[in-house]
Amino acid sequence: MEKKLQQAEMSILGLRSMQHYSLRKRCIFMLKLTCFILTVFIFCEFLIYYVVIIQCHWPELKNQTLGINKPNSHSVLKTIFLSDPHLLGRINGHWLDKLRREWQMERAFQTALWLLQPEIVFILGDIFDEGKWSSSQAWSDDVRRYQKIFWHPDHTEVFGIVGNHDIGFHYEMTSFKLERFSKVFNFSSENIITRKGINFLIVNSVALEGDRCIICRTAEAKLIELSHQLNCSLKKQNQYKKSCTNVDKLPTSAPILLQVGWKTDRTRSLHFILHGYIEKLFCTFNSSQHYPLYRRSDSECTGEDAAPLEKKNDLFREKYDVLSQEASQKLLWWFHPRLILSGHTHSACEVLHNGNIHEISVPSFSWRNRNNPSFIMGSITSTEVSLYKCFLPYENTVIAIYCTAGFVLVVLILAHFQPLLSPYHFVQRLITKYKAL
């Protein structure tokens, strides 16, 4: 009897020991799965941005490359240009779409700020998707989300430029919408921002309709005034002395004749070197706006982030896809910019105007508009500009990582419940069954 009791006790102890071992094994397995899931999540949502953006670098200027008249580091302005974030609103914005794409932009922007330390950032329009019709409450909510996504330290300046989705196309644009945008972004239509002797002309391209509306007349008058101010800023223009008596002078920098060196390296960079000398009447500056200057289509645009082949030959509509020919020629004639940066098309393009004025169309910054978003990095002085395109993580790469991780996870779980088979044989068995079907 005692032996039976001892055997029963031993059986119970053995059973408890097996249960404890089984429970411990399950806990360890669950811990491993949790660590695997967290590792994949942290990599796809945080680390991948560092891995990709750390490969980008500030481009060298021509004089730096040649070692001639090497510019002082304090005279080089480190600038980032990005375009078309399209923060979704209440009407067209699904909550999951908002969460996914806005998180992508926030991580990309904050990572770029931390790694690259730019001095100034320009967002080239269409910051919001529904600014053209959003109510005051919806606008406040969109602005709050913008300030979270594009938060920046005090030593980095961020300028938002108005786009058609922010205030509407010309027929939707009102003074109220324009003032609402201006208050949030300290935006002033047709304005010159000067940093380190470099002039950036900010243009409200939506107002360049040419139909003499109140906003359009004001914008054109301001542009003419700025053109005169830039011309008066040149030191050697004696013929302008009388008319320039009461004009505030801007920093003088050499007009630009483009000697363009273009190359694409293994990191998919866009690299321009622009160099110039004093020869013309006009003061050099960079033009930043939302609409591109007039071009027939994107048929001449090249690169992996250019428009898709099926859309390249679509003809652009003036005053909708691009500025009108008249407005484009006025801007070129009034200012003779050394470089023009624009957005709106969501795709990359490089256009040469009048044989020597380069325009860069900056692709969208959001996964919502393209699989391979990017931004432009610029090393700029008063005489030179060098640009580099920095790509963000591809959306399909992140999706592929998640899908692969999901497949591995399923295999591990199924293999765990078939302990007699090794993972290798288990996978082989699954493949055999699949082929048999």
Automatic annotation (TrEMBL):
Similarity remark: Belongs to the metallophosphoesterase superfamily. MPPE1 family.
Chain's role: Metallophosphoesterase that catalyzes the removal of a side-chain ethanolamine-phosphate (EtNP) from the second mannose of the GPI-anchor protein intermediate. Participates in the glycan remodeling steps of GPI-anchor maturation to allow an efficient transport of GPI-anchor proteins from the endoplasmic reticulum to the Golgi.
PANTHER family recorded: METALLO PHOSPHOESTERASE RELATED, METALLOPHOSPHOESTERASE 1
Gene Ontology terms: biological process: endoplasmic reticulum to Golgi vesicle-mediated transport; GPI anchor biosynthetic process
Keyword Magnesium annotated: no
Record flagged with keyword S-adenosyl-L-methionine: no
Annotated transmembrane regions: 27-52, 399-421
Membrane topology (UniProt): Multi-pass membrane protein
Gene3D superfamilies recorded: 3.60.21.10
Main location as per UniProt: endoplasmic reticulum
This protein's name: Metallophosphoesterase 1
Record-level GO cellular component terms: endoplasmic reticulum-Golgi intermediate compartment membrane; Golgi apparatus; nucleoplasm
Single annotated GO MF: metal ion binding
Cofactors demanded by this protein: Mn(2+)
Keyword terms: ER-Golgi transport, GPI-anchor biosynthesis, Hydrolase, Manganese, Membrane, Metal-binding, Transmembrane, Transmembrane helix, Transport
Residues in Calcineurin-like phosphoesterase domain copies: 78-347
Subcellular location(s) of the protein: Endoplasmic reticulum-Golgi intermediate compartment membrane
InterPro entries: Calcineurin-like_PHP (IPR004843), Metallo-depent_PP-like (IPR029052), MPP_MPPE1 (IPR039541), PGAP5/Cdc1/Ted1 (IPR033308)
CDD domains membership: MPP_MPPE1
